[in-house]
Amino acid sequence: MSDWISEAPEAAREYLKDRRLDEVECIISDLPGIARGKAVPASKFARQKYFHLPDSIFYQTLTGGWGEAAGDEGFIEKDMFLRPDWSTTTAAPWTGDWTLQVIHDAFDTDGKPVEFSPRNVLKRVVDLYRKKGWEPVVAPEMEFFLVARNTDPAKEIKPMMGRSGRPAAARQAYSMTAVDEFGPVIDDIYDFAEAQGFEIDGITQEGGAGQLEINLIHGDPVELADQVFYFKRLIREAALRHDCYATFMAKPIENEPGSAMHIHHSVIDIETGQNIFSGPQGGDTDAFFHFIAGLQNHLPSAIAVLAPYVNSYRRYVRDHAAPINLEWARDNRTTGIRIPLSTPAARRVENRIAGMDCNPYLGIAASLACGYLGLIEQERPDKQYKGDAYDGEEAIPRILGGALDIFDEAKDLHDVLGPEFARVYSIVKRAEYEEFLAVISPWEREHLLLNV
């Protein structure tokens, strides 16, 4: 076994036990969260310490276009040095041969992290916490739909057929029978996750037709973002084995709930090992309220990252299991910021704003950045909301263009996430938004063509 494999996690070594490694996928997340990289023979990978990709992959839109900066005078498409993080080595168990995946980090020719690489953005935010003596801890929840194959974009998305031969039913949250309908797909998800060394905290049926949720064990933000990045791919591969699609689109089906990536946060004092949200007697601390205030004050500026596409804003609908404002409350799922029931040691703050369509590195980074600013600014949040927050005022941007305008003005947030990242992100997202505005929708043809 090659020396580098000996540094890999146990699950990867176990996957290759008594087998010959054929190929290694060297991957990195772009801004949308798509895995970019190269697949190389195992023998070649063992000889190389890094490989190159152009930094222009971070200027590429979801549709394959380019942000304006790629054509600006003075823009030079530079090669990056991509170096493997051995701790991310994991199996690709759906392939036809014995393949491993390894996430790489991006550096420039001076050895400095490339600021607009999403994994580097998250590392930057985590490092800011650590410099203050804090260790951030997160636990993401992943919602997604299993849908029938859709090869014609002009047709509506339909729920997949369950093993009963009927389409997946809506409004069956937490139904074990509904989960059983997708049994073969879920079995493959569990098998792939086990082969990759990932621990699933639970799978439940959500409120949408064919909508499931997977919860992950809390831990280090970068490791959890890596897992979500990997999970999106393994879930898609499991679905394809059973003639259906897995989609992480925020709102794939009309009149159904959308899919979120709820993010639970807590912060540990590195010196004492204690949760800074709980005091010696188990009560709420000032830091707990400061963190909440940071989310309330800065999430509006970060929503362009947490809701990165035009479709993302279709999720924020009153009474459809998604928040419409940034009120906070205890054990109240109608608010944008929820405090779950817990022991003092496990006290945490849940951000319910992020969509499952966001890049996991950037979504977690942006959410932590808002909390960090709150801890630094030490302001108090609004009074805890009582009752149904859907009765309150809407306080979330409803279009991507408006969210980007707010993001562009948020210099405090840029300083935490990285000014160069903020510049490139805005360029790419505005290019995507302009592409969307160039498309005439069926609704416009139906209602405007002959009536206005």
Automatic annotation (TrEMBL):
Entry keyword Glycoprotein: no
User: Which Gene3D superfamilies is this protein grouped with?
Assistant: Glutamine synthetase, N-terminal domain, Glutamine synthetase/guanido kinase, catalytic domain
UniProt lists the family membership as follows: Belongs to the glutamine synthetase family.
Single GO MF descriptor: glutamine synthetase activity
Q: Does the keyword Ligase apply?
A: yes
All copies of domain GS catalytic, residue ranges: 118-452
Keywords, A to Z, come to: Ligase, Magnesium
Native species? Shimia haliotis
Question: What is this protein identified as?
Answer: L-glutamine synthetase
Q: Name the coenzymes or cofactors required.
A: Mg(2+)
Pfam families per UniProt = Gln-synt_C (PF00120)
Q: Which biological process annotations from GO are given for this protein?
A: glutamine biosynthetic process; polyamine catabolic process
User: Could you list the residue ranges forming a coiled coil in this record?
Assistant: none
**Source lineage:** Bacteria, Pseudomonadati, Pseudomonadota, Alphaproteobacteria, Rhodobacterales
